[in-house]
Amino acid sequence: MDAYRTFVLPIFLYGCETWTWTEVQMGGLEVTHSNCLRRIVGMKLKDRHRLETIREQCGTSSLELMVCRRTLQWHVLRMDEDRLPWQVFDC
């Protein structure tokens, strides 16, 4: 899982702070992310395990949530340090 977080996720999330993505694009990325997690855990799609349990086992969240977090963090980092969001997120 460490190799996945180190090598694969940065490729998925490269430049996501500035993306304007559609539901179809995000859906495709989610499917790929889910397939990678299933392979890591050793489950097949036909085993019919819930994606939430697979994410829990891997200690990760959905790719859409990761993109939203990074986008929000990027916007906060661009603000002045005296603004409230900067202080709340403790960037």
Could you explain the architecture of this structure?
The radius of gyration is 16 Å and the shape is elongated. The protein is 66% helix and 0% strand. Helix 2 crosses helix 3. It has 91 residues and is mostly helical.
Total E-strand runs:
0
Q: Roughly how many Å apart are the termini?
A: 26 Å
Strand fraction band? under 5%
Mean pLDDT: 82
Please state the structural category.
Answer: mainly alpha
- Following the backbone from N to C, one meets helices and strands in this order, namely HHHHH
* Low-confidence residue ranges: none
Number of discrete helical segments: 5
Q: Tell me roughly what share of residues is in helical segments.
A: 55-70%
Main sheet characteristics: none
Topology:
Blueprint: H1 2-13, H2 23-41, H3 51-58, H4 63-77, H5 84-89
What's a quick, concise take on this entry?
The chain is mainly alpha-helical and 91 residues long. The chain has helices at residues 2-13, 23-41, 51-58, 63-77, 84-89. Helix 2 packs across helix 3.
Main attributes?
91 residues; mainly alpha; 5 helices; 66% helix; 0% strand; elongated
